Amino acid sequence: MLMRGVVRGSIWSGCIGGLAMAACLFGALPALALDGIVEKKVFEMPSYTTTGGGTIKNVRIGWESYGKLNDAKDNAILITHFFSGNSHAAGKYKADDAAPGYWDSIIGPGKPLDTDKYFIISSDTLVNLSPKDPNVVTTGPASINPDTGKPYGMSFPIVTIQDFVNVQKALVDSLGIKTLQAVMGGSMGSLQAFEWGADHPEMVKRVIAAIGGPEADPFLIGWLNLWAAPIKLDPNWNNGDYYGKAEPKAGLAEALKLVTLHARHWKWADAAFGRKWAEDGKDPKAAMGNQYAIEAWLDKAAAGRAAVSDANHFLYLVKANQTFVTGNGASLEDGLAKIKAPVLLIPSADDLVFPPDRNMRPLKERLEKQGNVVEYTESITSTLGHLDGVVNIGKAGDTIAQFLAK
Amino acid sequence: MLMRGVVRGSIWSGCIGGLAMAACLFGALPALALDGIVEKKVFEMPSYTTTGGGTIKNVRIGWESYGKLNDAKDNAILITHFFSGNSHAAGKYKADDAAPGYWDSIIGPGKPLDTDKYFIISSDTLVNLSPKDPNVVTTGPASINPDTGKPYGMSFPIVTIQDFVNVQKALVDSLGIKTLQAVMGGSMGSLQAFEWGADHPEMVKRVIAAIGGPEADPFLIGWLNLWAAPIKLDPNWNNGDYYGKAEPKAGLAEALKLVTLHARHWKWADAAFGRKWAEDGKDPKAAMGNQYAIEAWLDKAAAGRAAVSDANHFLYLVKANQTFVTGNGASLEDGLAKIKAPVLLIPSADDLVFPPDRNMRPLKERLEKQGNVVEYTESITSTLGHLDGVVNIGKAGDTIAQFLAK
Predict the structure, then answer these.
(1) A3 lies in some domain
(2) Does residue A311 sit in the same domain as residue A334?
(3) Is A52 near chain B, with CB under 8 Å?
(4) pLDDT tens-digit profile of A355-390?
(5) Cβ-proximal residues to B53 (8 Å cutoff; 6+ apart), any chain
(6) Chain A within 8 Å of B10 (Cβ-Cβ)?
(7) Could you point out which of A156, A361, B50, B275 has its C-alpha 20 to 30 Å from the C-alpha of A320?
(8) Are B201 and B60 part of one and the same domain?
(9) Are residue A339 and residue A204 in the same domain, yes or no?
């Protein structure tokens, strides 16, 4: 089903291989019709040169769109995704999907990102965490290196958040779009939004950043190291050479448990589990293997995510996040100075990954000091910590709508 | 050098095998003389039955004391240690030791825990993390099971915080002490202090608890699971059967990195490292193995700690902490109701392990509501997060002194 474009930056608006055939049934519908049915499309580049000078051939990135691009091609908004996310930001592929895209609460007809008005683009990143997810299209260590016919593994070039943005820029260019009404992202998506603002100030009218920061702060650099550690401990990781062999599922699952817990909060743990045991009659005091409910839940949640994820992609994402400073240079001040657009900051007060005291609160002051228009709201704060920026983004809906209307 | 007592609860005030011979030179000095020289002593129990019904023979626990027990034997204060700590709370073993015990800033002549007035006892716990530390004496999975002549490994009985307290109680009883002016501990030490208050209300005149809580909250239960995970991923762990073979050093080191980082704060990371590279000329963007300074520091700090620690002891400590509820029953309310003593709570406002919003702030209200006298201070808060409770305890010195004087 899937044809490859051969021109740099070509687009093929197709379905995802044989993995999600059902989605193809809706291929003829306009994206995000009234029933919210969306399709995955694929953007291809025959070759991409990374900011570090590496070459990646046959770059393929999945993307979705909601709403219609107007004739002036000036009503587009780009959505950039978080560490463990993908381009499925809104709508459903099939009417009976269990859930819509992650920000469906703010994307759609009459919603803050109003698809009656805006053309919303959402794209997968390079080295997306979940290359085995049938709804993800990405290029990374698990991809076949055309020069060898084998997966890249750890020979894949190091990529940065700026590389993610560069590939998105090529996608947006290929659509003839010269103006973005906004670039909006949460967590790692916010890093991309800041980078877009710094790299393309003439193009980006607004930056909307949720639960993130303008750089990886040193404490986060340390945490990212720890997120990655279980993968490297798993003997199946084998320095990244595991394709076609037993994969490091156990290490990847423990890494994903760390991400999952770090992105939440004690308020969530109290409400969801308390000190409940995993199984009636199996007192955690009675045997080392007897667990509390939260432990069993973490194991199960992580195993599910590990099944569609790739361990090397995880390590490359860690590196991309650790090395992030807005502007991709040495100086955060210089990078931020390149951002000319108004900026809307949406932190969760309880965020343990990007604590607002370290990130968005001082960022607000820095941006105002350099002359940017800055809006700021912590209205998404609920009980989920960092994850409030995904699940509870709707609480900032009015603020987002007003910011877009200005 | 080391003789074994054969009577239950006997004491032998000796030196630590052949591992710290120098300390024996000072064996004749009174504990914590004016020059702050202390000696490690060993408390032994021929047999101890755990709260879960397990039997541990030949229990040996290290302890230290500072100051002199008065004739009435009513001037004692017990110090209980944190997860990765031990009984070395004050003074030095040798005049040229690099550093004194961890709470030396508040223990000594004229200090808040005034050794001119009080007899301060500090004891190692069961399953202490660091059985290879020459200054630790403990009994746990790495100890020889007298029935088999081999290390217990994972056949060691599960132990609880209440078991730690029961062994300390036997030590205190053996000294003829019937009254403790206070039990004071930080982090896991605070759990023991609460347990002492609940189990022995007739004996404990005051509870002083720093950077802790009255139970392991569900979020902490999850984190403790994650702390333990790297050990189990290390193939050398081998279900705990590694004594005399290659030990799971890599997994233990990653576990200790998690403890180390979780116990600190972004303020510390900013001040100590910023985004500095580990090595000049080795840009972390240039190679997957090139690190930031904080990563290299974590690796080095953890490797040092792993060298004296035991992986199975780590797992048993995790279990003891996860299962903790004051009173060792199902109900926190019932456990707290047993505490009759005045309580001094000393959290760090930035504590990520025992966040005060979840732990000591609501605990203050609960204790006051049930009629306890409660003092509360966050004066230790600096830049270290949880670790402020160890490093900066001196900032609460006046409050501690006043609380003891009441």
Answers:
(1) no
(2) no
(3) yes
(4) 999 999 999 999 999 999 999 999 999 999 999 999
(5) B157
(6) no
(7) A361
(8) yes
(9) yes
Percentage of chain A lying above the pLDDT 90 cut: 91
Separation of CA A108 from chain center: 19
Token look-up 């193809």 returns A24
Check whether residue B299 and residue B363 sit in a common domain. no
Domain for residue B155, yes or no? yes
Mean pLDDT of successive 10-residue segments in chain B (406 residues)? Answer: 31 36 37 70 98 98 98 98 98 95 97 98 98 97 97 98 98 98 98 98 98 98 98 98 98 98 98 98 98 98 97 98 96 98 98 98 98 98 98 98 97
pLDDT value, residue B249: 98
The reply to whether A22 and A160 lie within a common domain is yes
- Nearest residue on chain B to A229, alpha-carbon basis: B254
Q: How confident is the model at residue A27 (pLDDT cuts 50, 70, 90)?
A: very low
Among residues B317, B336, B368, the one where a domain terminates is B317
Residues A198 and A309 in one domain: no
In the structure, what pLDDT confidence band is assigned to residue A25 with cuts at 50, 70 and 90?
Answer: very low
Rounded Cα distance between A311 and A142, Å, is 9
Kindly determine whether residue B254 and residue A233, on different chains, have CB atoms separated by under 8 Å: yes
Does a structural domain hold residue A5? no
Under an 8 A CB cutoff, do A222 and B295 touch?
yes
Which CATH number belongs to the domain containing residue A179 in this structure?
A: 3.40.50.1820
pLDDT of A328: 97
Structure tokens at B37: 């020289």
Same domain (yes/no): A86, A190 = yes
**Portion 279-318 of B in contact with A at CB < 8 A:** 284-288, 291-292, 294-295, 298, 315
- A-chain residues within 8 Å CB-CB of B321? none
Q: In 3-state terms, what secondary structure has residue A50?
A: coil
Q: Which of residues 114-153 of A touch B (CB under 8 A)?
A: none
Residues of B in contact with A286 (CB under 8 A): 52, 158
| Residue A72 phi, psi (nearest 5) | -75, -10
Tell me: do A226 and A193 sit in the same domain.
Answer: no
* Known active-site residue A351: yes
Using CA coordinates, name the residue in chain B closest to A259.
B226
Last residue of a domain, one of B260, B289, B317: B317
Q: Domains in chain B: how many in total?
A: 2
Q: In what order do the strands lie in the sheet with B11-12?
A: B11-12, B41-49, B55-66, B119-123, B76-80, B180-186, B207-210, B343-346, B374-376
Q: Which of the following is catalytic: B123, B187, B190, B379? A: B187
Whether A257 has its CB under 8 Å from any CB of chain B: the answer is yes
- Cα A5 to chain centroid distance, Å, stands at 25
Per-residue exposure over B327-338, b if at least 16 CB sit within 10 Å of its own CB, e if not: bbeeebeebbbb
